[in-house]
Each structure stands twice: as structure tokens, then as C-alpha cells.
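Sequence, please.
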């Protein structure tokens, strides 16, 4: 199988490439920068092309020449704060890049499945829990709005043109190789801070919960969607369990002896934060997938990774 993966050197992308390169697949990675090349294991099955995905003419030529069986679109801005700083750039890197690739598949009449990686941020602040595939979306950020627009484009191109599409949404994921930036992945940032025995800032006194999922479970979920996902469908990839942040902080403290502070929640965070969040993952489970890594084991593995660097 020929797979084109955008963002294949990133956190989710590099782990997915590891999984897919073990079988008899030909993989082409499109990446904006080579700075994360160390995330990938060398393989004769993998080709890497450095390219800005907003250079649509070049991307189109690459798609035509490669002739993928599957496109997995993971690239784009994933920072909600950056989406406010550069809103038009966020439209280009997220919504426009998705639209271009869908239109390219249509125009070139490619027999190609398109899989979009999305995020829990599209929901906004849920009015009812647990969230599922039918929960109304009311995003609170420009990033979330553009990802949701990308989801709608996938649905439209499937329903109108018959293009094979799938969408997966990931809850708060964590694990090795993720960047340790507070406004990109707060979970990994806190684990990294703890591994260095720094003081953790936990908002709202830790009196809120999220659905945390380890990266290996995410990758197995995506793999299941590639193999078994029904065309045109959306799937949540989540643990399906509540992790209270006071418990999360306690686990980190026990494993690393780090300090914990409970500062006042910043005004910006209050405006855009989704609050309590947990997902019903039964739709993906029906395809034979289930999460296997518990929160204590996942944190331990992530700390071991940071300590090995």
C-alpha cells in the first residue's frame, strides 16, 4: 500500500510511520521542516520531502507522481494560541490544505482514501458528557474552527463526490516525542516539567478532568481506522476515562518528587478552555480496538523517555 502522510515527523505522525513501515508499505512523508528527523527510524520504505503544504502546485504534482492509496493528513498548526496570533495562516495550513487535497483527489480521479486527523478542540465546551460522534460542536478557538471546517469538507466531498474519507478526533494525548510547549500539549509539558523536578502549575486547584490517552493507543486506533473504518465516518480515539488533574498531579509527584502549585487560572485560559471532558469511544471499539495503557504506566513510559534524553 502507498501512503502519503503529512506531518509524518511529528508526535503522532512519527509513531504512525513506525507502525506502518513495519509492513510492506511505501510511505511518502511531506514535512515543512526536517528538525524532527530524529523521531524517525531509518527505513527503505520511507521517503521524505520537505515542502510547505500551502504550496499547492508542488503538493499537487507530488500527489500525481506518487499516486497514493491513502492520504493521512496530520500536518497544520495545532496550537490554539498561535491560531489567534496568525489567524489567516491558520486558515491556510488547516482548512485550505485539506480542501486542496480533497479537490486534487476529485480532479485527478484518484482511487484514494483521505483520512483527516482532528481534535477534541472542535467541540468547545461540551454541555453534556460523555461526548460522542453526535455531540454538537461550538469551538472556542480559531484553530478549532478551522479543524471543524476541515471535517465538514471531508463529509461534503464524501457525500457529493463519493470520495472515501475518514475523520478521527483525539482527546488529550501524551507520550514520547511530543514537543514540550505549554500552549501546544499541556499534558506532555507537565510530564516533562515533572521529570526535571520543576514546580508544576495546575489551574483550578486540579478540580477538573480530561480524557487522557497514551500515544500507542492512539496509533493503534488510527491503524484500525485505516484497515476497518467505514467510508464517510468519524471516530473518536480516547481512553473513555476521566482523569482528574489533582490525581494527574499526584501521580507525577509520586513518580518524580516534583513540586505542585495552584495559581489562579489566566483570563485567556478561562475564555477558551473546554473544561471537563470525557468521550464515549464505543464506536471505535466496535471495530475491534481498545485502549491498553493505563495512566500510571503511560506517565512512567513518558518520564523514562524524557530521562533518557
Amino acid at each position: 500500500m502507498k501512503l502519503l502522510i503529512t506531518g509524518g515527523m511529528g508526535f503522532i505522525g512519527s509513531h504512525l510511520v513506525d507502525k506502518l513501515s513495519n509492513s510492506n508499505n511505501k510511505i511518502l512523508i511531506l514535512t515543512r521542516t526536517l528538525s524532527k528527523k530524529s523521531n524517525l527510524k531509518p527505513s527503505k520504505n520511507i521517503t521524505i520531502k520537505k515542502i510547505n503544504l500551502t504550496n499547492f502546485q508542488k503538493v499537487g504534482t507530488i500527489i500525481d507522481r506518487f499516486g497514493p492509496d491513502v492520504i493521512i493528513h496530520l500536518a497544520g498548526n495545532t496550537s490554539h494560541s498561535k491560531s489567534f496570533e496568525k489567524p489567516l495562516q491558520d486558515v491556510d495550513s488547516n482548512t485550505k490544505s485539506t480542501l486542496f487535497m480533497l479537490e486534487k483527489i476529485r480532479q485527478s480521479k484518484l482511487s484514494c482514501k483521505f483520512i483527516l486527523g482532528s481534535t477534541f478542540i472542535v467541540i468547545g465546551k461540551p454541555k453534556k458528557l460523555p461526548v460522542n460522534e453526535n455531540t454538537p460542536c461550538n469551538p472556542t478557538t480559531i484553530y478549532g474552527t478551522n479543524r471543524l471546517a476541515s471535517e465538514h469538507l471531508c463529509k461534503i466531498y464524501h457525500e457529493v463526490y463519493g470520495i472515501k474519507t475518514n475523520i478521527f478526533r483525539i482527546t488529550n494525548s501524551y507520550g514520547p516525542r511530543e514537543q514540550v510547549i505549554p500552549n501546544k500539549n499541556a499534558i506532555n509539558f507537565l510530564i516533562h516539567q515533572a521529570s526535571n523536578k520543576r514546580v508544576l502549575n495546575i489551574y483550578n486547584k486540579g478540580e477538573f478532568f480530561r480524557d487522557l490517552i497514551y500515544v500507542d493507543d492512539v496509533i493503534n486506533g488510527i491503524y484500525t481506522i485505516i484497515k476497518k473504518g467505514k467510508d464517510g465516518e468519524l471516530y473518536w480515539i480516547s481512553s473513555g476515562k476521566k482523569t482528574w488533574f489533582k490525581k494527574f498531579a499526584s501521580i507525577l509527584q509520586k513518580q518524580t518528587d516534583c513540586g505542585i502549585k495552584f495559581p489562579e487560572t489566566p483570563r485567556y485560559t478561562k475564555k477558551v478552555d473546554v473544561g471537563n471532558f470525557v468521550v464515549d469511544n464505543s464506536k471505535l471499539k466496535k471495530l475491534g480496538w481498545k485502549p491498553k495503557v493505563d495512566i500510571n504506566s503511560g506517565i512512567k513510559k513518558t518520564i523514562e523517555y524524557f530521562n533518557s534524553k
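Residues 87-108 form the longest helix (22 residues).
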